[in-house]
Write a structure and sequence with these properties.
heterodimer; A: alpha/beta; Aspartate Aminotransferase, domain 2; Aspartate Aminotransferase, domain 1; 2 domains; seven-stranded mixed β-sheet; 16 helices; 13 strands; globular; B: alpha+beta; OB fold (Dihydrolipoamide Acetyltransferase, E2P); six-stranded antiparallel β-sheet; three-stranded antiparallel β-sheet; 3 helices; 9 strands
């Protein structure tokens, strides 16, 4: 029920009412409204109950296990929030003079340095406002690099079919043509196909490593050599950085440019569409093109480096310099963890995934890449259950909600039929993982004995099985008053 | 088991091709493909008059699970697109070989048709992909 539907004419929350005697003279008469806006007329207690009950309907990391593959829905320490909201940081104006911003600038500078160190890159810009923008900046730099060398015909970008779906979209947005490279049965890039695809038209290769198949690309050095010898550059999608944080560095793998979703790996609650932060890291070759502004240290003082300092820069990505709140959370998170802590993130993210994978296999589930070690995530395929029992990945996912777990990612990556992409993250304990395994086993049993239980799931939530087709085709989120 | 009509030609990317006359073919996606993709919510058909190459992405089918490119089986000119799909994308699910056809193309080089699979070949290809 919407709060508008709880409205009754004339009801008010007196204690919350504005002082109606206040006159605002600065707005011209012609712009003042004459009728009252349609607002719900409810009491203070009604509002409190309404929103409290709404929040209780949330499926969230604060309440439930959230193994949503490829999204890294890990727990974000409260300390990152509270420290990022210190009054001196929150009330700082983005145009404040450097003299009164040395504290903030030092945080951003140190974050740049930490991220450079943990990824093995030569430069780091934190100006990007979201993952997609980080990708765009990376590809724009590759384009600027080739143009600066009058190598204008390099307009083709190679994208393995196991890459993040955003990668080909980014290449097209930058005016490039996309060429897909197939994956072999073990989940690695098909080297023969890659060799056949590179040439004088190759601008670069976009790779997510570990890939969306939940495996580490073992031939990365060979791939880097092939692309570089053909004159192309390597772009690293940092979506799956959690698995290798502090362990392996994209810079050492041979990548020329990377983007990191700080909101994913570095402690910002996400999944609601923002705010995000895309750190963009570059190697030697792309250093002159890095997006501005970034913080530099000069004569014991921190200051913003702008176009004048980096004349070949691809330019600005945001009005000021990225999402300050997200960057501060990332900085605090990195400082709380330290170098050893970052390694532990990768250790436990991969340990949890491998434990879950081994136990689900023992419980009779089929793995998409049996025999490969999981990274921070892995794929279960329910192809057999779909064929023999008519129980699909979607049915299992919906039934998991009844057992109190958020569903894993379904039907992604597209390469694997009837798949669940499961990412437990490092912040879950063994008991939670065991509960999930127990739930999966029970659902498998239900699928064998009475598949209708799965087909009608979820039964315990306020909203039952949604009509996906209607939701996609006739989306209507606007409430209209009955009188209108 | 999905339906694979004997009188059509097939691609590895799961399009079917009906040869209407010497130079005109109709294209859609197979029963196997529609079953794998799930309920359709939107079909983007190619522009009439567009010149396409063989294996070039020229249409998009969007289901509740995913958005997928449809590749032209041969090179040529798009001469017709199924306008009914704008209102009834479900035709692709219900009648993939009938009302769910997606576009027609005037073939540039009819030799390209030789490279397509027949029903038997496509059935074996699907079995191997499993």
């Amino acid at each position: 029920m919407l709060i508008f539907e709880k409205s009754s004419p004339g009801r008010q929350a007196g204690g919350q009412s504005p002082d109606i005697d206040t006159r605002i003279d600065s707005i011209p008469e012609s712009l003042l409204r004459t009728d009252s806006p349609t607002m719900p007329e409810v009491s203070e207690l009604q509002v409190v109950r309404h929103y409290t009950q709404l929040s209780q309907k949330n499926f969230s990391i604060d309440t439930q296990f959230y193994p949503l593959g490829s999204c890294t829905m890990k727990y974000n320490p409260r300390a990152c929030n509270s420290l990022a909201m210190l009054p001196g940081l929150v009330s700082r104006h983005p145009l404040s003079h450097n003299n009164v911003s040395q504290g903030y600038l030092s945080c951003i500078y140190e974050l740049q340095e930490i991220l450079k160190d943990v990824t093995g890159m030569k430069g780091m810009s934190l100006a990007g406002m979201a993952g997609a923008q980080g990708e765009f900046a990376g590809m724009a730099m590759i384009r600027a690099y080739h143009q600066s060398r009058n190598d204008d015909d390099r307009l083709e970008v190679l994208v393995p079919d196991a890459a993040h779906g955003t990668n080909p979209a980014t290449a097209v947005m930058c005016g490039m043509k996309v060429r897909e490279i197939p994956t072999n049965r073990e989940g690695d890039v098909d080297i023969k196909a890659l060799k056949a695809a590179v040439g004088p038209q190759t601008a670069g290769l976009m790779l997510t490593n570990p890939s969306t198949l939940g495996v580490f690309e073992r031939q990365i050095k060979e791939i880097a050599r092939i692309v570089h010898e053909a004159g192309g550059l390597l772009y690293y999608d940092g979506a799956n950085l959690n698995a290798i944080l502090g362990k392996v560095r994209p810079g050492d793998m041979g990548f020329d440019v990377i983007h990191l979703n700080l909101h994913k790996t570095f402690s910002t609650p996400h999944g609601g569409g923002g705010p995000g932060a895309a750190a963009v890291g570059v190697g030697e070759r792309l250093l002159p093109f890095i997006p501005v502004p970034l913080v530099i240290r000069q004569d014991e003082q921190y200051r913003w480096a702008e176009e004048a300092d980096i004349p070949q820069t691809i330019g600005r990505l945001s009005a000021f310099a990225g999402n300050a709140g997200v960057l501060l959370r990332a900085y605090i998170y990195a400082r709380l963890l330290g170098k050893d802590g970052m390694r532990r993130v990768a250790d436990y993210a991969t340990l949890n995934a491998n434990y879950l994978m081994a136990r689900l296999k023992a419980a009779g589930f089929d793995l998409a890449f049996d025999g490969r070690r999981a990274t921070h995530e892995f794929i279960v395929t329910l192809k057999r259950q779909a064929k023999e029992l008519n129980a699909t990945a979607m049915d299992y996912a919906k039934r998991l909600l009844d057992y109190g777990h958020h569903a894993p990612t379904t039907y992604f990556p597209l390469l694997v039929p009837e798949c669940l992409l499961i990412e437990p993250t490092e912040t879950e304990d063994k008991a939670t993982l065991d509960n999930f395994i127990e739930a999966m086993s029970r659902i498998d049993e239900e699928a064998r004995t009475d598949v209708e239980i799965l087909k009608s799931a979820p039964v315990s939530l306020p909203v039952k099985r949604l009509d996906d087709v209607k939701a996609a085709r006739e989306l209507d989120l606007t409430w209209k008053a009955a009188s209108e | 088991m999905s339906e694979i009509p004997g009188d059509l030609k097939y691609t590895k990317s799961h399009e079917w091709v009906r040869i209407e006359d010497d130079h005109l073919v109709t294209v859609g996606i197979t029963d196997h493909a529609q079953a794998a993709l799930g309920d359709m919510v939107f079909i983007e058909t190619p522009e009439i008059g567009a010149e396409v190459e063989a294996e070039e992405a020229c249409a998009v089918v969007e289901s509740v699970k995913a958005a997928s490119d449809i590749y032209s089986p041969v090179g040529g000119e798009i001469v017709e697109a199924n306008a009914n799909l704008a209102d009834s994308p479900e035709s692709v699910n219900e009648q993939p070989y009938g009302d769910g056809w997606i576009f027609q193309i005037r073939v540039g080089d009819t030799d390209e048709l030789e490279g397509l699979m027949d029903a038997e070949g496509y059935e074996a290809f699907c079995a191997e992909e499993e």
